[in-house]
Amino acid sequence: MTNTGALTMTSTFTLHIQCGTAKWDKFSSSIIMHFLENSETLFVLQFREMLYLTEMHKITILQMICYGERTRTQAEVVRLFQEKYPVLPPISQGTVSKIQKQFRERGHVRQLKKHPSNKLSDDQKLYVMLMLEENPHTSSRQTASALNISHSSILRVLTENQMHPYKLIPTNELAEDDFDIRILFCEQMMQMIDDNTLQIKNVLFLDESTFTLHGHANRHNCRYWSRENLHWMRELHTQNPEKVNVWAGIMEKISLVPSSLTAI
C-alpha cells in the first residue's frame, strides 16, 4: 500500500505514515485536516504555526551560524541542522532569520510566556466610571489599586468614555487694587521706553520658589476627571508659616542669590 502526503510542518513532532494511519508523538499545536480522500491511503495535513524548536535547538542554530571567525549562510545552517537532526522536520531559512532576530532583540531564545488577557467585563468598566463620578479627583492609579485592576486597563476604560484628566494650574490671588497697580506699572514702563530712559542692564529680573512642609497642593497629583473642562478651582491658604521662600535675581552679568544658598 502506498501513502501520499503533502505536509507543511509547523510543530516539533515525528510523523510516521503506516498503512493509511498517521501517528505523531510530540507536538505543541493543533492539527487541521485540510483535505481527506481515501482515508486509508491519502491525506493532507497542514499545521499553521511556526516550527516549534526547543531552546537547545535554537542555541545549536546560533552556534552553527558563527563558526570560528567565519559566519555561515542561512542555507548552510539549514543543511547542517538537517544533518544533525535528521528525525526533525527540516527548517527553513526564514526560521534561522527569526531566531537571529529574536537573539538580537531579547538576548535569549527562550519561549516567552503568554500573559493573561486584561479584558474587563462590563461590570468592571461600570465600577470604574462610578468611582470617578463619585470622586473625580481620584487618580487613575488609586482607582486601579482600589478595584484591583491593572493601571493600563483603567486608562483604556477612561479613553473609551472620553474622560480627560484636567490639571490644576496655580494662579496668584489678586486683590481689588492689584489690577490698577499693574496697569500703572505698564504705563510707566512704556513711557520710559518712549523716553529712551530705560536701560536693560539696570533691570533686575527676579524669580522665586516656595517650599512648604504641608498644606501645599502638588499640582502633578491634582486631577479632575471629566468629559469637559469645568474650570475647577482649589483655594489654598495664602499665609502658611511653615514654608521657605527661595529667590534669585539676574542683572546684566551679575547673579544675585541669598547668602545661605551661595554654596549650592
UniProtKB/TrEMBL annotation:
One of its GO terms (cellular component) is nucleus. Transmembrane segments: none annotated. It comes from the Eukaryota. InterPro entries: Homeodomain-like_sf (IPR009057), RNaseH_sf (IPR036397). It is found in: Nucleus. One of its GO terms (molecular function) is nucleic acid binding. PANTHER family: HTH PSQ-TYPE DOMAIN-CONTAINING PROTEIN, TRANSPOSABLE ELEMENT TC3 TRANSPOSASE-LIKE PROTEIN. This is DUF4817 domain-containing protein. The lineage of its organism: Eukaryota, Metazoa, Ecdysozoa, Arthropoda, Hexapoda.
